[in-house]
Amino acid sequence: MLTFEEKLAVIESFEELTRNNVSLGRVNFQYAESAYDKKNVVYHLHPNGNGFVYAEFLNGYDVNDKGMTNIREFSADELRTIIQRSIQSLAPKSTAEAAIVGDEKEEKWVGEGDQVLILLEEDGMWNIYAGLNLDNMFSTYEDAAEYLAEEGFKRL
Q1: In principle, which of 34, 81, 97, 127 could form an S-S bond with 90, CB 3.0–4.6 Å?
Q2: Is residue 156 within 8 Å of 145, Cβ to Cβ?
Q3: Measuring CA to CA, how many Å separate 121 from each of 2, 6, 39, 67, 154?
Q4: CA 27 – CA 152 distance, rounded (Å)
Q5: Which residues pair with 107 in a beta bridge?
């Protein structure tokens, strides 16, 4: 388990996060550019090493009713990964994403080198976009998700 100071060092390496000290020595870190009302990426990091990261939109984490996952036992790499993915999940849509997605609900999948692909249902088909470019089309969500996983992508 990382100490409070070690967790702070990892978290403070993210320039897009702003530190806010709260009660009982706890610390929150907020992402001001969030496209959602949710701004806290790191919530109630405590001097005893306990704390939470917002992971509601992320796949593979157990979350509480506030969309937070406990980071008490996380390694430095695990902490860095979940914070990066949390920020990506809250980031505003790029111009290209907005042009493709509009008001529809999309899934973001991240691969090697932080490449992000968008999976979107359109007219009964599941389309994968890389920026403005249509990368692939599938008739089912399962086929599209399987393809993305085989290509080394993970759902945000």
Answers
A1: 34
A2: no
A3: 41, 42, 28, 24, 18
A4: 34
A5: 119
Question: Are residues 109 and 119 in contact, defined by beta-carbon separation less than 8 angstroms?
Answer: yes
Residue-wise pLDDT tens for the chain (156 aa)?
899 999 999 999 999 999 999 988 999 999 999 887 889 999 999 999 999 999 988 878 999 999 999 999 999 999 999 999 899 888 876 666 655 666 567 788 888 877 888 899 888 899 998 888 889 999 999 999 999 999 999 887
CB contact at 8 A, 85 and 73: no
Is residue 84 classed exposed, middle or buried when 0-12, 13-18 and 19+ CB atoms within 10 A define those classes?
middle
Phi, psi of 78 (to 5 degrees): -65, -40
Angle subtended by helix axes 4-12 and 76-90, to nearest 10: 40
